[in-house]
Amino acid sequence: MRKKVDERIRTLIENGVKKCHRSMFVIVGDKHHYQ
């Protein structure tokens, strides 16, 4: 089941690609406490 990605994350990635910057982000799912 796919979830909708927050628009801010997409913007962060696109800006990083345009400016050739590295960006790092952490994705936390619904079952994050099991990991």
Short description:
The protein is mostly helical. It is built from one helix and no strands. The longest helix is centred in the middle third of the chain and has 12 residues, at 7-18.
Describe the 3D structure.
By secondary structure, the protein is mainly α. It has one domain (1-35). The protein has one helix spanning 7-18. The radius of gyration is 12 Å and the shape is elongated. It starts with 6 loop residues before the first helix and ends in a 17-residue tail after the last helix.
Q: Report the strand count.
A: 0
Number of discrete helical segments: 1
- Radius of gyration of CA atoms, rounded to a whole number: 12 Å
Order of helices and strands: H
> What is the arithmetic mean of pLDDT?
75
Shape: elongated
Tell me the fraction of residues in β-strands, as a range. Answer: under 5%
User: Multimeric state of these chains?
Assistant: single chain
The span between the termini is 18 Å
Largest sheet, in brief, is: none
Number of domains: 1
- Helix coverage percent: 25-40%
Structural class: mainly alpha
Low-confidence stretches: none
Please describe the topology of this protein.
Elements (H helix, E strand, L loop, with lengths): L6 H12 L17
What keywords describe this structure?
1 helix; mainly alpha; 35 residues; 0% strand
